[in-house]
Design a protein that fits this description.
alpha/beta, globular
């Protein structure tokens, strides 16, 4: 099996999972915590070098306050759980906004936990426009430096190019996920909701990825 160096995770479907269970929408976020840890450990065993979770976006903060509190608290708990693992952990997002959880400020510089190891990134209060806001180079310079140089101009500069993005919940869209790092990513969709995560979801995605022709535009 060909293992990607960097996998991006879009854990969608928490609210729809809640509704299907007869619960209010905000109840689904905590149910995504255990799947996040399970996925980390599976990727760790497989030898994945970097893993990026999509926590919540600046657009998500427009939702009702009961939901924003729920997914913000879930992200804080998720980072706390990952900090108990062997990982090199980084939280990336707009820290100048009131919507960024202050508890996660210490994680906005990469830190090793346990024995260190796999790089784990968590996007919190992240917006693609915020990420690109520091760009001050011409479009020609961007094109010429796409394989590496442009990353230094991003707010997410410490996150590498993504090989495979897996999205749960059935939606076929990136939702602003790391627009530069994902430019050549393969994109796999799981129809099941994120709280219903199974290890088979990951293995099936990797089997599919192994059959793709990686050209990087060449």
């Amino acid at each position: 099996m060909r293992i990607p160096n960097h996998i991006g995770i879009i854990p969608d479907g928490n609210r729809r999972w809640s509704i299907a269970k007869g619960l209010t929408k905000e109840k689904g976020y905590d149910k995504g915590l255990d799947p996040g840890v399970q996925l980390f450990r599976l990727c760790q065993k497989l030898g994945v070098k970097e893993l990026t979770y999509y926590g919540f976006t600046t657009d998500n903060t427009k939702r009702p306050s009961i939901q924003t509190r729920a997914f913000t608290e879930a992200c804080v708990k998720a980072v706390s759980l990952l900090a108990q693992e062997d990982a090199s952990l980084l939280v990336v997002g707009n820290t100048e906004s009131q919507m960024f959880p202050k508890e996660l400020i210490p994680f906005t510089e990469r830190r090793n936990f346990g024995n260190g190891g796999m790089r784990v990134n968590f996007l919190v209060n992240y917006g693609w426009d915020w990420d690109l806001s520091s760009l001050s180079v011409s479009s020609k310079s961007i094109k010429n430096n796409l394989k590496g140089g442009i990353l230094g101009y991003l707010n997410s500069y410490d996150i590498s190019r993504v090989d495979l993005i897996i999205r749960w919940g059935g939606m076929r869209r990136l939702s602003g996920f790391l627009p530069v790092q994902s430019i050549y990513s393969d994109f796999y969709v799981v129809d099941d909701y994120w709280p219903d995560f199974k290890s088979e979801h990951l293995y099936t995605a990797l089997e599919w990825y192994g059959k793709q022709d990686v050209t990087l535009g060449g």
